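Attaching the record inline, Q. Sequence:
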Amino acid sequence: MISQKCYIFGALRPKELVYKPGKDDLVIAADRGVEVLSGLGIVPDVIIGDFDSLGYTPSGKNVQVLPVVKDDTDVGYAIKYALLEGYTDFVIYGGIGGLIDHTYANIQLAAYVSKHGGRAIFVGDDYYVTAITDNSIHLKGESKRVSVFAADTKVSGVTVKGLKYELENAELKSSFPLGVSNEFIGKDANISVKSGTLIIMTQTKI
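Structure, as predicted:
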């Protein structure tokens, strides 16, 4: 396990770098993330993609060219590459708020990382998305809204404290959005789950 973070940049340019890569962190450009990083003045350590959206194939020893026809997204490949390298702490830009199908895919990838013992924060312009598995998360009460969804068919032992609508040892299902649009009430919140994976969407920095 590596203590440094892995930063992955996708196709959408962020309004701001809420989290900034440190000198020892791993930075990966996923396809058009190459252009995003170039505009931000950041040199990627690794470039991964099929480069269909970029329009050309970058050159260099740090470039991994993927087939266009594949069973995963470029961001998904980037995540799996970093997991194999020992990274478990991810910050991912450019994957939330664009095409709805790719946004949904990236929400699923947040759950994938969580189920593999890591934590991925997908950063959008207005929302942060992460996931927890048999674990808990502490959220600063700095914004208005947070939603909690079951990533699995059934998630049990869900407890929500410090929000307008609290839960105690509850069960959430992927077929019913019970946890949507909860609200902060001027204090920090804690969300935990005993069995299963929860998707957390919030307007406050995680």
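The mean pLDDT is 94. Residues 96 and 124 are 5 Å apart (CA to CA).

More tomorrow.
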